[in-house]
Amino acid sequence: MKTRIQIPKHCQHCGQAFVAQTTTTRYCGDNCAKRAYKLRKKEEKIQQALTEQINTANDAKPQTLQSLQTLQPVFNLKNKEFLSVQEAAELLGASRWTIQRLVQRNVLNAAKLGRRTIIQRSEIDNLFKTDGK
Description:
Blueprint: E1 7-10, E2 17-20, H1 30-56, H2 62-77, E3 82-84, H3 85-92, H4 96-104, E4 111-113, E5 116-120, H5 121-127
Antiparallel strand pairs: 1-2, 3-5, 4-5
Helix pairs in contact: 1-2, 3-4
GO molecular function, one term: DNA binding
Pfam families: HTH_17
Domain Helix-turn-helix: 82-127
């Protein structure tokens, strides 16, 4: 006997709502799955190149090695759905206080989780979108 379940989900690549027929479906269609795969492979290559540079920079200046190590966490932050204030500041290249001011002015929506302030990744993405005005 075949069951036809319908699970409302959001595509992990484009964010569009769709109805999935299995519990493991992550993308709204074949195109989004292919694009997400290409993006994943691109990020893996970038990550691999960064680790190679860090490994070969043993004889390099300490400043160069430090700057390479600070780039590595930024790529990991791009995959996270929820960010702390510190992580959002690192991703935007701003200070923690700037992010706190944006939250206080309701420019950036955030939620409190105990003592931590959590910011959804889509809120940061929406921060730079304009309505054409």
